[in-house]
Amino acid sequence: MNGQAYVVIDVGKSGTRIKIHPWAEVLVGPGAAPELAGGPEAGRYLADLLAATWSQSGADGSGMSAVVIGSTFLPPTKEQEACRAALRQIWPSAVITLVSDGVLAHAAMLGGAGTVASLGTGTSVVGMDRSRHLHQMDSWGPDLGDRGSAADLGRSALRLACATVDGVAQTPGLLRMACDWLGEELDTPAAARLLAAEDRAARLADFALVICRGADDGDTDAAALVQRSARKVADTCTAMAARIGNPTLVLRGRFATDPSFHAALIPTLRAQGLTLIANNRDVLDIVPDVIADSAYRRTPQRATGGTTDLTTTALQEF
Q: SS3 for 24?
C-alpha cells in the first residue's frame, strides 16, 4: 500500500474489531446479532455497526486509502446500495471491499489451496481447491448450523440442563453450571430472558467456555459435550478436505484456542487424516492487495454449481 493508511475490519457475532494501518490501533465494538442479519434494514444495520466502532478512533475516514471488511453476514442484494452509500459517508475516498469473514480468514491465513476453519461463536469453513475455486461449509448461523461452535456447545449444554430440570436427563453438573452462570435458577422466566436477548448467540458462546472449564474440572457430561463439538468440527473439515482434494487445514478463532476444546479437537482432526498447519497471523493484518486476488472476488460455492462473481452477492469495489 506504499505507506498509505488503510483499515481492516472483522465483524463477528460476538464482537467487531477494526485495525488502522500503519498505526496498528485496534478498535473493539459490538458484534452483529444473527437475528438482525437478514432483516429489511440489514445493510444499514451493518453500516451503523461499523460507524459506531469507527467513531472510537476519532480519525478522519477521508484519509484512508482502502477498507477491507470481513463480515459474519453480507447484506442482501437489495440492501447493498444503502450499505454502500453509508460506508461512503465514513470512508469517502477509500476502495471498500466487503467479503464474508470466512473468505477474509482464508485470504489472510492461507491464501492458497487448503482449508481455513474459523471457530468462534459460529463455525465457518472455507476451502480452496487446486483450481483456486473457493468452497464454503457451515456458516448457516446459530439456529441452522454453526456445528461444533461455541454457541452450539453452549446451547447443547443448556438443553441438557433444562432436561435435567424436567427430570428427563441426569446432568446435575450442567444444571449447576447453568444456574451459576445465569446468576439465578434455571426456570421459564430465565430461559425467556436469554432467548429474547439480542446478543443471545454471544451469550451461548460465553456459556460454552464455562462448560469447557467444567470439563477441565472433571465433569464427565461437560467433557462429553466438548468431545462431541470437536467431532462436529472435524466432520465438517474432513468433508471439506474431500471436496477440495487437499487435507491442509488452518484453525483460527477464539474457540479454537480454548485449552479444553483444543485438546479434544486436535487429535480428532489428526485421526481423520487432516494435516494441521500452525498459523498465528491475525486476519486484521492482511494487506488489501491480497483480497483483490481474483480467487477472492467470487462467492464460495456450496454443494453444487460454479462460483459466481462476488459483485453479484456482496459489496465489492476496486
A: coil
Residues 258 and 116 in one domain: yes
Q: For residues 184, 189, 195 and 199, what is the CA-based torsion angle, rounded to 10 degrees? A: -50
d(CA 284, CA 306): 29
Residues 6 or more apart in contact with residue 213 via CB below 8 angstroms: 260
Residues recorded for the chain: 318
Task: Based on the fold, state whether residues 126 and 84 are members of the same structural domain.
Answer: no
Query: Could you report the per-residue pLDDT of 16-38, keeping only the tens digit for each?
Result: 999 999 988 899 999 988 777 77
**Mean pLDDT across the stretch 275-297?**
90
Run of H or E including 117? strand 114-119
The CATH number that applies at residue 95 is 3.30.420.40
The reply to whether 238 and 293 lie within a common domain is no
Query: Do residues 88 and 180 both lie within one domain?
Result: no
Segments forming the whole domain that contains residue 243: 112-278
State how far the alpha carbon of 3 is from the alpha carbons of 23, 25, 59, 200, 285, in Å.
11, 15, 17, 41, 14
What's the mean pLDDT in 164-178?
97
Pick the range with the lowest mean pLDDT from 58-62, 118-122, 231-235.
58-62
Integer Cα distance of 230 and 123 in angstroms = 12
Residues 301 and 269 in one domain: no
Q: Determine what percent of the chain is predicted with pLDDT higher than 70.
A: 94
Residue 318 lies in a domain: no
Q: What's the domain count of the chain?
A: 2
Helix (H, G, I), strand (E, B) or coil at 127: strand
Is residue 36 left, alpha or beta, with left meaning phi > 0 and alpha meaning psi from -120 to 50? alpha
- Say how far apart CA 132 and CA 113 lie, in whole Å: 7
Question: Which of these, 134, 146, 125, lies nearest to 314 by C-alpha position?
Answer: 134
Is the bond leading into 22 cis (omega within 30 degrees of zero)? yes
- Do 162 and 30 reside in the same domain of the chain? no
